[in-house]
Specification:
This protein has 421 residues and is mainly beta. The chain folds into three domains: 64-150, Immunoglobulin-like (Sandwich); 154-254, Immunoglobulin-like (Sandwich), CATH 2.60.40.3710; 257-408, L,D-transpeptidase catalytic domain-like. It is 14% helix and 37% strand. It has a five-stranded mixed sheet with strand order 22-21-20-28-23, with no helix packed on it. Strands 1-3-6-5 form a four-stranded antiparallel sheet, with no helix packed on it. Strands 2-8-7-4 form a four-stranded mixed sheet, with no helix packed on it. β7 (126-134) and β8 (140-149) form a beta hairpin. 33% of the residues are buried. The active site is at 342 (proton donor/acceptor), 360 (nucleophile). Residues 34-58 are annotated as: Disordered.
């Protein structure tokens, strides 16, 4: 039989082919993982890995935890941040702490599906959340997050009058003074609603970039309830400056009391529901310093207070106040510029006879504010914040609508022109 003889060229090609096969086997062995014999081919190895992954997934909790805001958020809401919810499970542990480890109290819902802080968070503060939940099989899920609340420099608030749950007179507007200028007045006003149980239409009016008042066309209906809703959280009032308030407050309107001061006759008629219940002698502003005319709203009450002329521009040649009375009894503010209706123990014989004040309306009273029978005390005791005092027949002009809570001196058409919505 003829022998098959391999030449050197064929020998080299054969060795190269064998090497290539061996190389591919080694490569496949390396890709299989740990190099051990799995007792199966390539296809079998892949199936085994899939089975491992599936087994691990089956052991993971189905509970899905959601945290607001997202992890790492800055300028977070002080009202809504730190809220936690879970689906396909229940919450078992929620811990909210500040950067220094101080715990923030919160409440878990009865169904253990949600948790939220008990109180408004602090501004410009970093918080951390650690959350645990479990699914129906008892498997645990974890979630951790952190966020920083909005800084004072990037936020605004509105200080409002009247106070929540107070009882006020029929003239009390809702007056909001913002601590920063508002550039987008439409956006801010749109996030504020004022309504009355009387059904009266209520409209807002911007006096300037930081003051927004609301009122109806006529005085509030007596015994009605007024509701103020502030939904300012996250509303951008100016570039980079957002609101942080989210609250609803209510106040009650009491009886309808309007008092009419006649500077010419030097009397004041106190009226309730249009009927005069008492006529009181008064002393209004002297000819050189007359009292403003117009509708004025009582905005503050002081059983006793100090009145210094220097604070409102009445000074002598030495720059000292023309008067400085440290115990004015039963004083009630009617304007920001310093108009009061108050008791007077120093104006002997002037009430009902002459106008002698620096622009205020004076009523007979005693030093110490301790005689309830005097007109000053009676009027103080029977007045509410928000009651209206109308001055007529004075030699001065009508008070400016923004000088105090006195927007009633603007007609309804003008008032509505100041609304941005």
């Amino acid at each position: 039989m003829e022998k098959l003889v391999m030449t050197d060229g064929k020998r080299r090609r054969g060795l190269a082919a064998a090497a290539a096969v061996l190389s591919s086997v080694l490569v496949l062995s390396a890709c299989s993982g740990d190099g051990e014999d799995k007792g199966g081919d390539d296809k079998g190895g892949k199936q085994s890995q899939q089975q491992v992954d599936k087994a691990a997934a089956e052991k993971a909790s189905k509970a899905r935890i959601a945290i607001a805001p997202k992890n790492g958020a800055t300028n977070a809401s002080i009202n809504n941040a730190g809220k936690v919810t879970v689906t396909e499970g229940t919450l078992t542990e929620v811990t909210l702490t500040t950067a220094d480890g101080t715990a923030v109290k919160g409440t878990l819902a009865a169904d253990a599906k949600s948790w939220k802080p008990d109180a408004q968070l602090e501004r410009s503060t970093s918080y951390k959340l650690a959350v645990k939940a479990k699914d129906d099989a008892g498997l645990t899920a974890h979630e951790n997050s952190s966020f920083t609340t909005v800084a004072p420099g990037n936020s605004f608030i509105g200080n409002f009058t009247p106070e929540a749950n107070s009882t006020v007179g029929v003239g009390m507007p809702v007056s909001i003074n913002f601590n920063k200028p508002i550039a987008d007045q439409k956006a801010v006003q749109s996030a504020i609603t004022v309504s009355s149980s009387s059904g009266q239409e209520v409209v807002g009016h911007w006096f300037n970039s930081q003051r927004l008042d609301f009122r109806p066309e006529q005085y509030w209906k007596e015994n009605s309830t007024v509701t103020l809703k502030l939904a300012l959280d996250g509303v951008e009032g100016a570039p980079g400056v957002v609101g942080v308030q989210q609250k609803t407050v209510k106040f009650t309107v009491g009886r309808n009391q309007v008092s009419v001061v006649d500077a010419a006759s030097k009397t004041m008629k106190v009226q309730q529901d249009g009927k005069t219940i008492r006529t009181i002698p008064i002393s209004a502003g002297a000819p050189a310093t007359p009292t403003y005319n117009g509708q004025m709203v009582i905005s503050e009450k002081f059983k006793e207070t100090r009145m210094n002329g220097a604070t409102v521009g009445f000074t002598d040649a030495n720059g000292k106040g023309e008067y400085d009375i440290k115990d004015v009894p039963h004083a009630m503010r009617l304007s920001t510029s310093g108009t009061f209706i108050h008791g007077s123990y120093w104006g002997k014989g002037v009430f009902g006879n002459s106008n002698t004040s620096h622009g205020c309306v004076g009523l007979e009273d005693v030093q110490g504010a301790n005689d309830p029978s005097k007109p000053g005390a009676w009027f103080y005791d029977n007045s509410l914040l928000g009651d209206v005092v109308i001055v007529k027949n004075s030699k001065d002009k009508t008070i400016a609508p923004d000088n105090g809570l006195n927007g009633w001196n603007m007609d309804w058409a003008q008032w509505k022109q100041g609304s941005k919505v």
